Amino acid sequence: MYNANNNTNEVDPFGRFPVLCPNGSGHSIKLGSTEAGGEAEGVSYEFTIPANENAYTLIYNYAVVFQSPNHQVFEQPRMEIEITNVTDNTTISCASYSFIAVGTALPGFQVSSSSDTTAVLFKDWSPVSIDLSGNAGKTIRLFFKTADCTFRRHFGYAYIDVNSECSGRFVGATYCPDDTAINVSAPYGYASYAWYDSSLTTPLGSQQVLNLSPPPPSGTVIAVKLEPYYGYGCSNTMFTKLKDTLTVTANAGRDTLSCNMSPVPIGIKPKPGLHYTWAPVTGLNKPDVANPMAFPDKTTSYVVTTMNSGGGCRITDTVVVRASVIDDSLRLLGKESYCFGNNDSAILNVNPTNSIQWFKNDAAISRATQPTFRVSSSGTYHALLKNDIGCSITTKKQPIIIDIAKPATSYAVEYALSNSPLTLQARQISENVLWKPAINLNTATSFTPTFKGSQEQLYTIELLTNTGCLTVDTQMVKIIKNVEIYVPTAFTPNKDGKNDYLRPILIGLKDLHFFRIYNRWGQLLFETKKPLPGWDGVFKGVEQTTQTVVWMVKGVGIDGREYAQKGTTVLLR
Which InterPro entries match (predicted)? Predict the structure, then answer.
C-alpha cells in the first residue's frame, strides 16, 4: 500500500512513473513484485450501488510492469480483472478481461530502459471505466489479480487505484449556470467514441471528451456510442441529460503545521470536472491540483480557487500552513580525531531550542541535554532537537575518534651477517613509521626496511597514527660472523625459574623448521617449530626422570642456507 504521506516522490524502477496514482486520491496498491517463481496475488473491492442509481459508472486506474519473454499469450505474465454481481452471483463479462504486454490490442506499452536480457514492458497509469448501469441496489465485487509467467521465470506486477467518485452521470453533464463552455466526458478506456444528439442522427464529436460552447439549454439529452478494444469489453450506447444545476464548494482543508519544510497535504481529493488553482504558488509542489503538498519556509495562507471546467461556479477557501524551521546545524569545535593526552578536544554545539538530546551511536546519552556537549570517547554523535510547537529534527551525524597511544616495546635482537641484507619488521600499529638513525637502511619510512651493514646498530622506531598518537619502539641489530645454534648440555626442570626449559638458542637463524627431543630408545618426547618456551621435561603429563636425551635442530639462516645440528643434553632431577 502506498500513500501520500510516505511515497509522494517514489517512482517505479522500470517505468519511472509515480507509484501513487495521479488521480489525487493519495493511495494505491501494488500487486506482485520482481520476484518470479509462478506467484500470483489478488485484492478485491466490494461495494453496493445505491438503489436509485440505475445508470452507474465506476472508474479504476492501473499501471502494469511485465517482463516480455517469447511466450504464447496464455503463458505470459498478466493482470486480470473480474467483475462480479455478488447479489445475482453472475460475472459481468463485458468488464472482465486480462491485461498482457505482447499480443494485446491495448495501446500505450513501452520498453523500459532498465531491461536486461529479457525486455521489460510497462504501461503508465491509465483509467478504465466500468459501465454498471442496470444494477441499482446490487452488490458488486472487483477482483484484481496478477500472475508471473507459467514457466515460473518471468515476473509481472501492477498498481491499482479505484476512484472514490462514482456516478451514473457523465463528468460534465451537470454544469454551472454561468459556464461559458462545458466538457462532457464519456467513460475512459474505449477504442473509439461517437457523440450524437438524442435521436442518434446528428454527430457531435468523436473524442472521449465532448466540448460544447456555449452550453446547450438545460435538459438537453446527448448520446455516445462506445467501441472497446478488441477483447476488452462490449459495444455500448449511453445517454445523459445535461443540467445547469451544479453547485461547487471549495475546501482548502484544515490548518496544519509544516516542520522543517517537510511536505504536508492540504486541500481534499479532487472531483472530476472541477479545476483548482492555489495562490501563492511558493512552497507548493503542484498549485493546479486539488490536494497539493505544502512545504513553506514561513507561515503562509494558501487560497484555493475551485471552479467548473467551463469557468463557472468560482469559489474560494483558505488554509493556513504554519511553518516552523529548527536550525539543525551541528558545529565541531576542535578535532574530529585526536590522540588522548595531546591537549586536543572535540566539542559539539547546536543552537539553543526547547529540547535537546545528544546521542552516541544512536543511543541517548544520560543528562546530555545542553546546546554544548564535550566528547569523551570515540563514537558517532548527533542531537535530536525539538521546539515548543511539536516540531523535531535530527542533526547530521559526526564521527569522533579519540585514540590512545600503544605502549612502547623493545623487539628481540636481530642478527645479521656482515654486509648481508636483513629485513627488519616494525609493528604495524600506525599509519606512519620512521626509523632513527637511517644508517645502513634502504629506507627509513617503511615498516619492513632492509638492513645492510658491518656494525651493530640500535634503532628507535617512531610509530605515528593519523590521530597524533606516537609510540617509540627499539630494535637492536647485531653483527655475527656465522649462523650458530646453541643448546645447553644440561637443564633442571624443577620449576625454580632457572634453567627449567630445554630450548635452542638461535643466532642468525631466521626460520626454525623443527626442534626435536628423543629419549635413548628413539622415542619422540617433544617437537616444536618455535624457539620458545622449549621443553619442560614432561612427556604425556608425566615428569621424566634423570636421563640423557638426544635433540635435533633444523632451520634456515639469514643467509638463506639450511642449517641442521644434533647433540645430547642431560635432564637432571
Answer: T9SS_type_B
Q: 239 is written with which cell numbers?
A: 445517454
Give yes or no for a contact between 344 and 334, defined as CB atoms under 8 angstroms apart: yes
Q: What is the mean pLDDT of each run of 10 residues along the chain (573 residues)?
A: 64 89 79 78 89 82 82 74 92 78 71 78 83 88 84 80 68 87 84 93 94 92 88 80 92 95 92 92 95 95 94 95 95 95 92 96 96 96 94 96 96 92 95 97 97 96 96 96 93 92 92 95 95 94 94 93 95 91
| Residue that has been written with the C-alpha cell 471505466 in this structure | 129
Q: Which three cell numbers stand for residue 179?
A: 459556464
- Give CA–CA dist 114/109, Å, rounded: 15
The span from the CA of 84 to the CA of 132, in Å, is 11
113: left (phi > 0), else alpha (psi -120 to 50), else beta? alpha
pLDDT value of residue 84:
92
Q: Which residues contact 311 (CB under 8 A, 6 or more apart)?
A: 178, 179, 180, 181
Contacts of 480 (CB under 8 A, 6+ apart): 415, 416, 417, 418, 507, 508
Q: β-pairing, 209-212 with 182-185?
A: antiparallel
pLDDT value of position 306: 96
Cβ-based burial of 170 (10 A; exposed 0-12, middle 13-18, buried ≥19): buried
How many C-beta neighbours within 10 Å does residue 83 have?
20
CB 49 within 8 A of CB 131: no
Grid cell locating 124: 503508465
Strand, helix or coil at 513?
strand
Question: Helix, strand or coil for residue 75?
Answer: helix
The torsion angles phi and psi of 95, rounded to 5 degrees, stand at -115, 10
- Separation CA 264–CA 300 (nearest Å): 13
Q: Are 432 and 464 in contact (CB under 8 A)?
A: yes
- Say if residues 261 and 295 touch (Cβ distance below 8 Å): yes
SS3 of 464-515 = ECCCCCEEEEEEEEEEECCCEEECCCEECCCCCCCCCCECCEEECEEEEEEE
CA distance 257 to 265: 10
d(CA 257, CA 322): 5
Residue with cell string 440505475:
54
From the list 143, 144, 166, the residue with the least C-alpha distance to 57 is: 166
Length of the chain: 573
Domains and CATH numbers, the chain: 2-162 (2.60.120), 174-244 (2.60.40), 256-324 (2.60.40), 330-403 (2.60.40.10), 414-480 (2.60.40.10), 484-571 (2.60.40)
C-alpha of 32 from chain center: 20
* Total-model pTM: 0.56
Rounded-to-integer distance, Cα 233 and Cα 226, Å: 10
Distance (Å, rounded) from C-alpha 62 to C-alpha 146? 12
Name the residue among 464, 476, 470, 505 with its Cα closest to residue 411.
Answer: 476
